[in-house]
Design brief:
Elements lengths: L4 H5 L4 H8 L2 E3 L27 H10 L5 E6 L2 H5 L23 E2 L4 H6 L2 H15 L3 E6 L1 H6 L3 H12 L2 E5 L8 H16 L12 E5 L7 H12 L2 E6 L5 H4 L7 E4 L2 H15 L2 E4 L5 H15 L2 H29 L3 E6 L3 H11 L3 E7 L4 H5 L34 H10 L17 E4 L3 H11 L3 E4 L4 H6 L3 E4 L11 H17 L2 H4 L3 H4 L13
Helix pairs in contact: 3-9, 6-8, 9-12, 10-20, 13-14, 14-20
This protein binds FE-MO-S cluster.
């Protein structure tokens, strides 16, 4: 079946039509010159978008989950308030560690501060934070007005670092910078490389890894940690879900960087490769088959018979545990279809888990991914315009003479590169079914129209459009926060996800919801139709 996407786009003015058409692709594997996708561009003004901001990507996503970092939002109170506890990134402390995850610190800028400057207030906030909470690390994250009035948060941070003898980092992650959350990831990654990673000197174990781009939403990271520790890996640092600045200092000592979310953390992976020689590997612990593949890929990298045997033993053990339950849920899910619209990697990762349950993905989109997340890193040299390039620093790193190490021989590296995703991500589109739709930065109008056109049984998105789907009689599951459920990763997580999806699909509620198009004929001039 072909989809008449043009009919939806026709409603737009000419300039918007052209713009949006470039962001929509129908997967056609038999096509000699498949359409490329445009992404990482600013949202068309006036369009209602689901995207977040640069501050959300820096403070909310990358820095926020570090348990022992006390984060001060320098800006009006709303910015801090709306990022307080809403992402469900969990953390558990041990020993004498501090945990600031449940707090929200802000300078609460008022009109007077905007006129006369907010640096004084920031200094005072740092002083109070040090006196009351005695943190080892403070991170300052600024929001839009701070960038506009020009407070020098970096000078304040440097002075506070001297005065209190603790680490104080400043992130100029004003909301308007870059494209959506994506710019904030980049700024946060730069800061962690510049200030933290490489400052420790811990001795690490035999199979030493860092887990990157896993945020422990709903406990996903805990499930992944459990599996990897059971196999015998030494997890040097978690960057950043359930992680600490204390551990992060030693990250350069690990042998391999294991990357779950490519979009938000690939900068750190790449910079650590240049600076410390560490390879990174792209994994996906969402879905049974993809978890098994990821575990086997890791074992291949270390190529140690003991580790390989242990990997296989753990896979069999875990599978035996979850197999029968999954089969049961699969019977309720098989044959259904899903549409996914999430930030920059979950719309890909969850297709694997849906496939395990016999559910096909008919539409997938990212809010702010870059072309490489869609089409694979091989397109990197051909990306003409980078949405980050205007106002986000791209830092250059060099090999560290003391800490640069290479784990694989050249021959081994070349051989392994063909077998596992070593320093490589293939992107989402290659793995999508033929005829499915890929839409970058889906807006509310397109969401409604595509739901009517494709009629998926499940729509996975976030809080901003969850209820549009419910009002249309379509079960919707939030893939950002998991609707208070989770973990969904690994073997046990797959069962919890299957249970939640089966429960959602079989609830009789959807039958009681009657959107107009279920009962009334199409209104004249309706642009919703399927064409052959
Ligand atoms: Fe990576 Fe994320 Fe995502 Fe993301 Fe996010 Fe998130 Fe996300 Mo919400 S880091 S890109 S900026 S996997 S908060 S844990 S769910 S949009 S798809």
């Amino acid at each position: 079946m072909k989809h008449n996407v043009d009919k939806i786009l026709e409603k737009y003015p000419a300039a918007v039509y052209k713009n949006r058409k470039e962001h929509i692709v129908v997967k056609q594997s038999d096509c000699e010159e498949p359409q490329t996708i445009t992404s990482n561009t600013r949202t068309v003004p006036g369009i209602i978008t689901n995207r977040g901001c640069c501050y959300a990507g820096c403070k909310g996503v990358v820095i926020g989950p570090l348990r022992d970092a006390l984060i001060i939002t320098h800006g009006p109170i709303g910015c801090g308030f709306y990022t307080w506890g809403t992402r469900r990134n969990k953390g558990r402390t041990s020993g004498d560690e501090k945990n600031f995850l449940n707090y929200c610190f802000s300078t609460d800028l008022q009109e007077g501060d905007i006129v006369f400057g907010g640096e004084k207030k920031l200094k005072q906030a740092i002083k109070e934070a040090v006196e009351i909470f005695k943190p080892e690390t403070i991170a300052i994250c600024s929001t839009c007005p701070v960038g506009l009035i020009g407070d020098d948060i970096h000078a304040v941070a440097a002075q506070a670092e001297k005065e209190y003898g603790i680490k104080v980092m400043a992130f100029s992650c004003e909301g308007y910078k870059g494209v959506s959350q994506s710019g904030g990831h980049h700024i946060a990654n730069n800061g962690l490389i510049r200030h933290i990673i490489g400052t420790g000197d811990k001795t690490v174990g035999k199979y030493a890894i860092n887990i990157l781009g896993e945020y422990n939403i709903g406990g996903d990271g805990w499930e992944i940690e459990r599996l990897l520790r059971k196999i015998g890996y030494d997890i040097v640092s978690l960057i950043p879900g359930n992680g600490t600045v204390r551990e992060l200092k030693h990250a350069h000592k690990a042998t391999l960087n294991v990357i779950q979310c490519h979009r938000s953390i690939n900068y750190i992976g790449e910079m650590m490769k240049t600076k410390y020689g560490q390879d990174w590997i792209k994994v996906n612990f969402i879905g049974i088959k993809s978890t098994i593949k990821s575990l086997r890929d890791l074992a291949k990298y270390f190529d140690d018979p003991d580790l390989t045997a242990r990997t296989e033993a753990v896979i069999s053990e875990e599978l035996a545990e979850v197999g029968p339950q999954l089969e049961n849920y699969k019977k309720m899910c098989e044959g259904k279809t899903a549409a996914l619209f999430v930030g920059g990697s979950r719309a890909h990762h969850y297709q694997h888990l849906f496939k395990d349950l016999g559910i096909e993905t008919v539409l997938a989109g990212y809010e702010f991914a870059h072309r490489d997340d869609y089409e694979g890193r091989e397109v990197l040299p051909f990306i003409k315009e980078d949405g980050d390039s205007k106002n986000i620093e791209s830092i250059e790193v060099e090999a560290d003479p003391q800490n640069y190490r290479v784990f694989l021989s050249k021959e081994k590296y070349e051989k392994l590169k063909d077998e596992i995703p070593l320093n490589y991500y293939a992107g989402m589109i290659k793995e999508m079914p033929n005829g499915s739709l890929v839409v970058d930065d889906l807006n509310h109008y397109e969401t409604e129209e595509l739901l009517r056109l494709l009629k998926p049984d499940i729509f996975c998105s976030g809080i901003k459009d969850k209820y549009i789907a419910h009002k249309a009689g379509i079960f919707s599951k939030q893939l950002h926060s998991y609707d208070y459920s989770g973990p969904y990763s690994g073997f046990n997580g797959a069962v919890i996800f299957a249970r939640d999806i089966a429960m959602g699909l079989t609830t009789p509620s959807w039958g009681y919801v009657m959107p107009p198009w279920k009962t009334e004929p199409m209104i004249e001039g309706s642009y919703i139709e399927e064409v052959v």
